């Protein structure tokens, strides 16, 4: 974990951002959770350590960390959700609608889309599948 945190400290430095205990605690939270979290969930999880940390401060930090690609985001149920960015290989995600658990989907249909859309240039894409994980399906 310490090695991973140093990597994120370097990302903050490289982007001329202060390395604060709050930011590092937030990054550590996302490393431990490995799922999408809302700003409200982040606030609830950090409340015991930082009881005066405002929702606005959390939201600003989430967007800052997203801008420098520490976090990635998705819009889920009308609310922006964040998770630690996946940077080791190209893939997509399945996201459980109940618990937010995220599973990696390694298959990418990009080449099929490019063949079907020969007259366009696709510059980027993001695929997310939503449903219920096995644990949430069986507990409902």
UniProtKB/TrEMBL annotation:
Q: Matching InterPro entries, A to Z?
A: FUR, Fur_C, WH-like_DNA-bd_sf, WH_DNA-bd_sf
Q: MF terms per GO, please? A: DNA-binding transcription factor activity; transcription cis-regulatory region binding; zinc ion binding
Q: Which cofactor does it need?
A: Zn(2+); Mn(2+); Fe(2+)
Which positions in this protein are listed as binding Zn(2+)? 96, 99, 133, 136
Write down the SUPFAM superfamilies for this protein, in alphabetical order: Winged helix' DNA-binding domain
Tell me the Gene Ontology biological-process terms attached to this UniProt entry: negative regulation of DNA-templated transcription; regulation of secondary metabolite biosynthetic process
Binding note for cofactor: Binds 1 zinc ion per subunit. Binds 1 Mn(2+) or Fe(2+) ion per subunit.
In which compartments does the protein localize? Cytoplasm
- Give me the Gene Ontology terms describing cellular component: cytoplasm
For the ligand (Fe cation), the binding residues are: 90, 111, 125
Q: Which CDD domains match?
A: Fur_like
- UniProt keyword terms in alphabetical order: Cytoplasm, DNA-binding, Iron, Metal-binding, Repressor, Transcription, Transcription regulation, Zinc
Q: What this chain does, per the record?
A: Acts as a global negative controlling element, employing Fe(2+) as a cofactor to bind the operator of the repressed genes.
Give the protein family: Belongs to the Fur family.
Q: Which PANTHER family match?
A: FERRIC UPTAKE REGULATION PROTEIN, ZINC UPTAKE REGULATION PROTEIN
| The name this protein goes by in its record | Ferric uptake regulation protein
Provenance organism: Salinicoccus kekensis
